[in-house]
């Protein structure tokens, strides 16, 4: 409850450089718009949470699915369908597009999920798969793994998917700045919970986070793309 309240408060400023994860959120609208432009037909959004992506999807039949305990106990949301991503409650070849955005790392049996997606997707249907790579543990204890883009492609190829597009998200300085801001924020939260006198230093946090965000954005803007240490990957995959 403590962290949930903090997250709700920070969500109000997530599109400003004062937010610890501004580096992630600053391009949120652009990334979601790109996804919305690629989906068609009946769209299944697995792990839909608050269904934020829905407003970017036009002229499609959107179905949001989430796990019952996750939706009710963690996020307080209500999907269109309650279900398990590893045992989807849909018929074979019934979906045109499946979204799996920052969900696969939370599944204890990710292969079962990819297998189920391959089952419910129509031939030539699309899977939009996004996962974190260099990113802290989150939603513990339901955080089980990380993949490189090469590991992801190897995983999905076993279930008949080919890569139509792959996107590396985050230049090295952006990822480094993101991790530093999260570390600073988590340290201050720990001080707050334990009523540590060092909490007085927390008054410096907004300026530190703002400076880190600006520095990393500026120097990354001036630097070429480098795939060495992204914070996330997105693959657009087609079922054969």
Helix content: 25-40%
CATH superfamily of the largest domain: Vaccinia Virus protein VP39
What is the CATH-assigned architecture of the largest domain?
3-Layer(aba) Sandwich
Fold-level CATH name of the largest domain? Rossmann fold
The domain count comes to: 2
CATH class group of the largest domain? Alpha Beta
Strand content: 15-25%
Number of strands: 7
In short:
The chain is α/β, with parallel strands linked by helices and 240 residues long. Helices cover 39% and strands 20% of the residues. It folds into 2 domains: 1-25 and 172-224, no CATH class; 39-171 and 228-239, Rossmann fold.
Commentary on this structure:
The protein has 2 domains: 1-25 and 172-224, no CATH class; 39-171 and 228-239, Vaccinia Virus protein VP39 (Rossmann fold, 3-Layer(aba) Sandwich). The protein has helices spanning 2-11, 22-25, 28-38, 68-75, 110-120, 149-157, 172-194, 205-221; strands at 42-46, 61-66, 81-82, 95-101, 121-132, 161-169, 232-239. The termini are far apart. α7 (172-194) runs antiparallel to α8 (205-221). It is built from 8 helices and 7 strands; from the N terminus they run αααββαββαβαβααβ.
């Amino acid at each position: 409850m403590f962290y949930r309240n903090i997250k709700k408060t920070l969500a109000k400023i997530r599109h400003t450089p004062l937010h610890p994860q501004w580096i992630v959120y600053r391009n949120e609208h652009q990334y979601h718009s790109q996804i919305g432009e690629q989906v068609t037909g009946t769209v299944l959004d697995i792990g839909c949470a608050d269904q934020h992506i829905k407003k970017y999807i036009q002229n499609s039949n959107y179905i949001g699915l989430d796990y019952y305990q996750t939706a009710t106990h963690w996020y307080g949301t209500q999907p269109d369908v309650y279900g398990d991503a590893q045992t989807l409650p849909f018929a074979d070849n019934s979906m045109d597009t499946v979204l799996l955005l920052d969900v696969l790392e939370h599944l204890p049996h990710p292969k079962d999920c990819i297998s189920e997606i391959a089952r419910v997707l129509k031939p030539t249907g699309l899977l939009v798969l996004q996962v974190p790579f260099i990113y802290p543990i989150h939603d513990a204890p339901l955080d089980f793994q990380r993949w490189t883009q090469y590991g992801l492609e190897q995983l999905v190829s076993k279930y008949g998917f080919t890569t139509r597009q792959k996107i590396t998200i985050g230049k090295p300085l952006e990822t480094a700045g993101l991790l530093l801001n999260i570390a600073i924020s988590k340290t201050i939260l720990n001080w707050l919970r334990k009523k540590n006198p060092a909490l007085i230093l927390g008054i410096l946090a907004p300026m530190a986070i703002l400076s880190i965000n600006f520095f990393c954005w500026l120097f990354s803007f001036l630097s070429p793309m480098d795939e060495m240490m992204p914070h996330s990957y997105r693959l657009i995959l087609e079922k054969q």
